[in-house]
Sequence to fold (236 residues):
Amino acid sequence: MKLSAPVYRLKRKAKLLSREENIPLHEALDRIAAREGFSGWSLLSAKLAEVMPASELFARLSPGDLVLLGARPGHGKTLISLELAVEAMKSGYRSAFFTLEYTERDVLDRFRMIGADWERYKALFEFDTSEAISADYIAGRLASAARGTLVIIDYLQILDQRRDKPDLMTQVRTLKAFAQERGVVIVFISQIDRSYDPAVKPCPDMTDIRLPNPLDLGLFDKACFVNNGAIEFRAA
Fold:
């Protein structure tokens, strides 16, 4: 399938069109899809799903994994994480999304962007925006999580923002122990350091993770980096 631009840029165009013309996002998505030769965004998404990286990444995951998903702002890391959640839910597992960045409406809009039927998955999806988000909070909320549950933390660096919480290294170690004990998969969306230069390398890597405070990146089992539509999978 040949599109006029990477899908993350098409989604960005749809959001801009939605704001400029004060129309619902789903209508803007359909208009963008029409420009690409599809009668609606759902058909474009269905075609795109055949080559989406999320299914490939999901196939690489194992219970107990800690995964880094890194990209600069606007390059689709949140959408890929939600695509991973959908892959998990398609397989009958639950998913949970912890964020201080997005509202529930934002997440619903992104479900539309990836062509996922919210009504089909809402019973399997937990959304949490508590100001108390931390390793202990997440472990407490998921104390009864079944093996195979996929957990998204948006984003790694939010665990490092409150001085009344343990340091980042301690929290990631806590979540690693929790993931291994419960057999859940935890995906950390991560910011990329501003020093990353795409002219030097096409995708960021582990050396480009933004770390205001020390963190042993060896605690992660797998990583995925995205830039301008290019995606690289790595063993962490």
In short: The chain has nine helices and seven strands.
